[in-house]
Prior knowledge:
Order of helices and strands: HEHHEHHHEHHEEEHHHHEEEEHHHHHH
Number of domains: 2
Number of helices: 18
Strand order of the largest sheet: 1-4-5-6
Shape: elongated
Low-confidence stretches: 1-22
Strand content: 5-15%
Helix content: 40-55%
Amino acid sequence: MKNQNFRNSMIAILVTFLSAQVFGTPKAIMSSHYMELWDYEGLTFLQTMIHEEEGVVQNFDSDFKQEYKFGTWSDIKYAIDNFDDKNRKRVLRSFDYDLKKMQKFTERLIREYKSFSPENISDKIGDLLKKMKIRGDKYSLGQFFAIASGAGTLIVIDEDNYFYNIGYQDGEVRSGRSYGATELHNANDASHLMYLRELEKFLKADNDYRQFYKAIMDFLTDTDVSVYDDPSFNKYGEAVLTDYITVYTAELRRHLMKDLHPYRAPWGNDMTEATFLSLFNVDSGLMMLGGDLKKASIKNHWALSKTGSGRSGFGINRQDRRELQSKISNHFRYHEDSLKRVSIQKIDALIGKNKSGDVYRGVMEFLNNRKNLNNPYRVESVEDELVDAFVDFLMLVHDNFEEVVEELYH
């Protein structure tokens, strides 16, 4: 009977999963904390984050302590099918992939606990797991049951792209998780490695790189996601951009917990600098690792700490990555051909030049500068020129990567 239950559950799950792939992104689970990014167009994304009345941070903080009623079994079952295969398995394995067992757990959760907040749901889930002698992950289940019950902040990019955000505790940079949904995958807490694999695949294919990088800059400087309305922007570009926005939002929230200090949780900057540099990395096949140029995949922008601390992420190889960024930047800043100096000279005039000359870092530290917290309109006066100049620079590097490589080896 147990094997039959397992088989039936997996068949139902597979049918729903395949349907989602055929018919596009499933309808999002609604939350009382809800944002549509196009409503914020005209603000930098940092402004969208810190907007006092209805910004991302305000929604995250309000949601964290808000009390919600546990959803019905129908709500929970719908949510199972709303997530991707990885997260679906993460939830179901606690119940031996038996939906009836999960239903009993849900009904008892509703009956005995009635309500929760994202702050305390993991403890309530853990308490019931112990009572029912179920070996499960109270943290993963807590996030899942919270979102399924209408908690969290739902941020909509367009009708086919959105992301859930849950459990961000102000001051705790390791808290919170965000799940992005696209036409290519259901809601998924994209890891840095997953994002880099997607990005590498996109950059190796024949895609419009200018359009993609301009879309990132438009998002950062203007919360402008109108590229999703452009029929020429394909679903692969949409998926990479949605996962970028999802992860970046999470990392910028953490960076804001440290008041945008350039060396304290600047993981959104790291991720974005790596994203910008990745076009050169893919063109050349080269990365700076351990102080040397090496043939490598861009997946190496993510790394485990060598200290044994267990830390990982985009920040581990920051020093190597920024050394390469500086070399590329200065190659064009001091180029003998005046036409190849134009874009970087424009950027220097707009944001200034840092000590190393690294324009990738310079752009991100200009956009995410603590000065912007008191003067959030600081970027507006230069945003259009900055977008054009920086995207021109990225395309200049792309078109001339071979001469950059030649200089790097001399």
